[in-house]
Amino acid sequence: MSWRYDVYVCPDPDAPSHGHYCLDRMEKVEGTFLDYGYRDAFQLAHDRAEENGHAAVWTTSPFNRKTALVYQHIRGGGPCQTCPAKVRGRGPWTRHVLGDQFICADCATQARRRVAAERIWSEDECPWYWPVLDRALKA
Known about the structure:
By secondary structure, the chain is of the alpha+beta class. The protein has 3 helices and 8 strands, in the order E-E-H-E-E-E-E-E-E-H-H.
């Protein structure tokens, strides 16, 4: 039994400008990655998003066949989901305590510092608020 990772790309040429609201219109690209191949799936999605504007990786559980979004990338970064409405920076798909989301570098740094201080960790020990692709490729 293996975890499956499938890469999807948004066919819309305006994908970077419409944010991450097109997941239901994405088209699957070639190949399925299994288990630890998730790193390759994330990298392929990143590369395809740089070419096409927006790509995502969905995983399928071998136990119950449910799917979940585990990674996405928008060229130039997605709209930060933690910035105040008038600021709205852009950043990578990032590990968040409430679930992964797009977070700009400023918001991620502030959140890591706050959580690390609360837990008496160094900033590097904080498991959250790091770009998902960076962490996957380091593992």
